Amino acid sequence: MPSLIRLLAKRLGTSLIVLIGVSLLIFAIARVIPGDPARIALGPNATAEAIAALRDRLHLDQSFLTQYGYFLADLVRGDLGTSLYTNRPVTSDIAQFLPATLELVIIAGLMMVAFGLPLGILSARHRGTFIDHAIRMVTLLGVSAPGFVWAVILMLVFAYFLPLFPIAGRISDSFTIPPVSGFLLIDTLLAGNIRAFGNAAWHIVLPAFALALSGIGQAARLVRSNMVETYDKPYIEMAQSYGFAEKRIARRYAFRPSLIPSLTIIGLDFAAMLGNAFLVEAVFAWPGLSRYGVAVILRKDLNAIVGTVLIMSALFLIVNIVVDLLVSIINPRIRLSQRAS
Amino acid sequence: MKRTLLILTRNPLSLIGLILVALVVLSAVFADLIAPFPEHRGAVVDFVNFNKAPEWPYIFGTDLVGRDLFSRIIYAYRISLVLGIVVLAIAVPVGVAIGLIAGYVGGWTEYLLMRLTDVFLSIPPLVLAMSMMGLLEPTLTNGMIAVTVMWWPWYTRLVYNLARSEKEEGYVLAAEVIGASKLHIMFREILPNCVPSILTKMMLDFGFVILIASSLSFLGLGVQPPTPDLGSMVAEGAKYLPDSWWLTVFPGLAILIAVFGFNLIGDALREILGVDQ
Q: Which ipTM did the prediction report?
């Protein structure tokens, strides 16, 4: 489908411009703010020479644009600089911590779709009844608390009070899994260790659910409101007068057109989980980007902050592009108008 | 206005919302009268009564240095509400103005403004506020700045889309024909028609500003101790789960109640004013 490819190219181009804007913005914030990053990184006992050397290495004495130029030149070579906190390349730090976060976010995203859409459909089908009110109440509660509050509540109830799930961590210490992808749910399978896979899956349930709760609520509410609107359309009445089953009308005639406007926002919510994962990871001692991110921010570790934000934004943009493509594949109007133009 | 309020009290869900918000606002405003231990909002130490489970007179228990949690939560509400008001008071006018200009003027102005908005919208909200907060000093004022910087683009996008569809309407064309200025058309013709959407979003957002601010302080990037803050209380207490459960459960529920209340009202407003999301 050449139209899809054209759409993809256009979206990639815009995203690249936006990403350059993001890097300029975060770079500007990082450099404009008062305080000498070299002094902070080296601590209060550093000698003047050491600070001068580090300032020189970070190009801190040059103009903003020159600094940004150095940064871009490094970036093109896939180099985000060295973290002043871990003394390792920022890219390898991120590569180490990102998979755990991504795994959590992806599972939470799946939960959001798996629970959010059916709840929304159910609510819309029974609009105005007790079922509808109950679902709306519960989903609104879901969006009304930050991830860390749900994490604490779920942990208290399902790990301490009813010890159904583990309290913290990604996998029990007794398992040693050789890291391949960094995704434990994949690596355990690659190692052929079914028990380790089960253990890792068991560990991810509570943190992912805590992260997913507000997304589930958001998705259900969106689908409901879009579907309720669709239910007023004449073709629904026609389907009803034909005597089609309510279930079929809900799924085929009311849900499908409602999915398209919902999908864009669901994509945004999914991407927002990348940030919200920080909150849940902190409670469940999940070894993801959270601790690293907060640590480098508190230490004003410029390279690491810029790198982390840039990677997060790139992922955010990728998710949005994927959602846009999905929408244009599902929506015949967009698909066909692309072809026509 | 009066009619809206009347409808709000008739629907059971929005009535609950009104009651919750009233509770939160009143307790914040009259904190000095309601809090059993007003001095506990600051750096007070009472090692005789530290880490007590809920019992009279400490209905929510005490924290690790013996301060009454109930009093601290009430004072934390006060700070959260002020933060919400300040953030929205700055973010909404800025975002709305940019959205109106981009949507109505079009052309290069539109392209530049909307790409700028995209830049802000493509950093995960919490991450943007976190990095700003980390690079600035963690104070209440800087917290407000960080949250404001991440908030205005949402209003730009909302108003931009509204303005783009409104500008094709007959009343805008009529105003153009009689030679009204662009400023007049944007702010006196188009803006009034965007007000219901903006108001609804503001009501919902008031809760979400509280939620984000508490998230920042939960990560240690917000208001610093001894200032009472719901997020940092949960973070502090999470280390002592499950034995000292009250340290996290009550501040956590306090966030939930406030945000839930604003959401219930916002939801009802959306239906009454007929606003799409």
A: 0.88
